[in-house]
Amino acid sequence: MRGKFWRLRIRVASGIIALVPLVVTFVVVRWVLLFTSGILLPVLDPAVTEWPWILQAALSLLTLLVGLYLLGELAAHVVGKRMLGLGENLVLKVPMVKGVYGAAKQIVAAFQGPGSKAFKSVVFVPFPHPGTRAVGFVTSSISATDGEVWNTVFVPTTPNPTSGFLQLMPEKDVVTTDLTVEEGVKMVMSLGALVPERTARFF
After folding, report:
1. Residue 117 pLDDT > 60, yes or no?
2. Which of 129, 132, 133, 137 has the most CB atoms at less than 10 Å from its CB?
3. How far, CA to CA in Å, does 37 sit from each of 28, 46, 184?
């Protein structure tokens, strides 16, 4: 009997948990429809006076959403850009902050878009110590006086790839892959959850 009573309590609690979000959603949606119709329907009358109430409320809500969207677009493209420009100008006038901000901005821009040329390839390097492998991005190559080629490799931190470590490594110690920069960034930002299947053949 105790087991059946306990199971009954669990089922009732589960039903309440499932019902509460639905009730809250219904109440919120109904309130928004009434609120927007109260604001916009006087403006739209008498053109829609013969429409059912639900269509009038939906039209008023749609009109409000369109207006907010257009206002947001205007703010983002006009006001937003001007504010960002003013902010950047102020930051770039501070001597020490100027260099840090400029470097950070370049790193962020390097990760934007799969067609970015800032990183030449995705590699695996022995970092932070031999026996381990870290995801890195080759940024350039250097030929030593003895003819050996060294790669400059940016090893990003996870899950924030805009910071990391710059390593100079012999090319022979760098495992080159055919992964795209976008795939490499996804690996880093997902904490390794998004790993392409073909990655295994590089080990």
Report:
1. no
2. 137
3. 14, 13, 49
pLDDT of residue 119: 75
Judged against a pLDDT cut of 80, whether residue 111 lies above it is answered with: no
Whole-angstrom distance, CA of residue 16 vs CA of residue 38: 32
Residue pLDDT, tens place only, 10-49:
666 666 666 666 777 777 667 766 666 666 666 666 666 6
Domain boundaries, the chain: 2-73, 114-202
Candidates 2.40.128, 2.30.30, 3.30.750, 2.60.40; CATH matching 114-202: 2.30.30
